[in-house]
Amino acid sequence: MVRKIMKDTAFLSQKAEIATAEDLPAAVDLLDTLRANAAGCVGMAANMIGVNKRIIAFDNEGAYMVMFNPEIVKSSGLYEAEEGCLSLPGVRKTKRRQMVKVRYQNENFQTRLKTFTGWTAQIIQHEIDHCNGVLI
User: Fold this and answer.
1) Active-site choice (61, 82, 83, 127)
2) What is d(CA 60, CA 66) in angstroms, rounded to the nearest whole number?
3) How confident is the model over 98-115, as a mean pLDDT?
4) Model confidence over 64-89: pLDDT tens digits?
5) What pTM does this model have?
6) Catalytic residue list contains 17
7) Over the stretch 85-96, which tens digit does the pLDDT of each residue have?
């Protein structure tokens, strides 16, 4: 189900709770909402649809990917970026890393470790910031 985009900064500033298998329907809604906003959005966190859980969905080089409980365990290559967000007006400057290694759980809640670089790494960092209650 496509959900309304959350714009309440007090809600968005909260740290998200750990996601469990009971949150799988929220991940489906997150993907549906991301697809519906694909023209202006490449990634979303669950809090952007009003679900305060550690779930992100993003465009991983042309295919959508969902991560439950993502955590950056290693990063390198600091640079300055400008980003927009469906939940916030305008574009803001932020600092990002060129490479991130992420530990997460897949839809079967199996733990995975994967390295991302470039644009995909930037998207993931933005969405994990959402999970941590950090607004750009």
Assistant:
1) 127
2) 9
3) 98
4) 999 999 999 999 999 999 999 999 99
5) 0.96
6) no
7) 999 999 999 999
